[in-house]
Amino acid sequence: MAQLGFGTRTQLLERPDRRYILKLLHIHAKKLGIYEGWPALNNIGLGGFVSRFMATMVPTVRRFNKWHHGFTASAVANSSNTPGGVFAPLIRGSGTPGKSNYFKRSHEQMVAEGSFVTLTGGDGYALTLSTLYFYLSHYPECQDRLAQELRAQFPEADVITSGPKLANCVYLRACIIEAMRMVPPASNVPWRECESGNSVLVGDSQIEKQRPGSESGVVQIPIGTDVGVSPYTIFRRKDIFREPARFWPERWLDPAQGGVIADDGERYRARQACKPFSIGPRNCSGQQVAMTMASVGVANILRDFEIRLADDKPDILKKVFEDGRPELDFELHFFTMWKEGPWVQFRSRGDSASAIGRS
After folding, report:
1. φ, ψ for residue 262 (rounded to 5)?
2. 76-135: per-residue pLDDT in tens?
3. What's the whole-number average pLDDT of the chain?
4. Which of 52-66, 79-93, 142-156, 316-330 has the least mean pLDDT?
5. Per-position DSSP letters for 11-80, written without gaps between them
6. What mean pLDDT comes out for the span 225-252?
7. pLDDT tens per residue, range 203-226
8. How would DSSP label each residue in 286-305?
């Protein structure tokens, strides 16, 4: 993500002295979860107070801020004469601090936007891959079908990149969407304030139809009301998704593609309800990039390696009993990220030169 946003690398994997950044990002994700869940806390200034307090009193936060400012300045400077990330030209366009062309607000905004995408955008990507590996370890039949599709499309040992062949991997896309349904990249409630007196909430349950002032499930929303829907809750509704606690990529395929749901209406309702990147003008602007990154990452691993749960690590799961049958459910860690796990092992499939070379 750092290469995408700023055209340079953070080297978090190569340099152990920078591993503390991951812990700080974990804390930052918790803060975002709290402020999104209870926006009033941020509205009264608690968010700004906590940030200023941590920046002043917590040594690791001061260390991170110093590193981050240096990283940003270096990334912008390095891309002055060579192509860089998507945010570097925007930051340069806001001028240079201390020069006559400097626009302070624009510059600070572009640095903030670039930093947010660079340092937190990778969290959703990591969560989706970890979730998918976790479920494929528990559903070997899905893993086998995915590996067969990838090996049919990419029989050679070359590194898989985006393109028409990858776009033809319909089961790969179904697996990624199903992973996002099981564990949404952003599971907190995105609150919005009602600004129009004509806003209505349409419901289909008997409870909603019986609310005072409602007619046929339509509820008038007063101006100023905060409205939000949890993606995690929507994605687990039994009236929309058949066997919602089951990891079932086939639900996203048409019958001609090997899907198992013949009812066009059922497939349509599920596709309309499952919007992990949200919808409308405030949806995720990087959703196409995220899907491409996930597809390329998963394809290169699953074509050449088998995945199984690690023998010496705890299995991060809880049991959900539905219709008398136990099902697996991923245990979310508060907002979008967790500190450890899931623990899986990779084993070369044995007949791929790329697998042997990269194992």
Report:
1. -85, -20
2. 666 655 656 666 666 666 555 555 555 555 666 666 766 666 666 667 777 888 889 988
3. 76
4. 316-330
5. -TTT-GGGTHHHHHHHHHHHHHHHHHH-HHHHHTTHHHHHHHHHHHH-HHHHHHHHHHHHHHHHHHHHTS
6. 88
7. 554 434 444 444 555 677 788 888
8. THHHHHHHHHHHHHHHHHHE
Note the Cα 229 to chain centre separation in Å: 17
Residue 315 Rama label (left phi>0; alpha psi -120 to 50; beta): beta
How far separated are the first and last CA of the chain, in Å rounded? 24
Residue labelled with tokens 């990269």: 358
pLDDT at 143: 95
- Tokens representing residue 70 in the block: 């240096």
Tally Cβ neighbours within 10 Å of residue 239. 10
- Rounded to whole angstroms, what are the CA distances from 340 to 22, 70, 102, 182, 213? 11, 29, 43, 19, 48
Residue at 14: amino acid letter: E
Q: Is the pLDDT of residue 332 over 60?
A: no
Predicted confidence at residue 98, as pLDDT, reads 58
Q: Are 348 and 304 in contact (CB under 8 A)?
A: yes
Structure tokens at 41: 């806390």
Query: For 299, what's the count of Cα atoms within 13 Å in the CB-facing half-sphere?
Result: 31
Contacts of 332 (CB under 8 A, 6+ apart): 183, 187, 232, 338
Nearest to 25 by CA among 129, 118, 111, 87: 118
| Residue 356 identity | I
**Number of Cβ atoms within 10 Å of the Cβ of 201:** 16
Q: What is the pLDDT of residue 327?
A: 56
- Between CA 46 and CA 43 the distance in angstroms is 7
Cα 9 to Cα 3, 6, 289, distances in angstroms: 6, 8, 18
C-alpha span between 69 and 74 (Å, rounded): 9
- CA gap 141, 28 in Å, rounded: 37
How many CB atoms are located within 10 Å of the residue 217 CB? 17
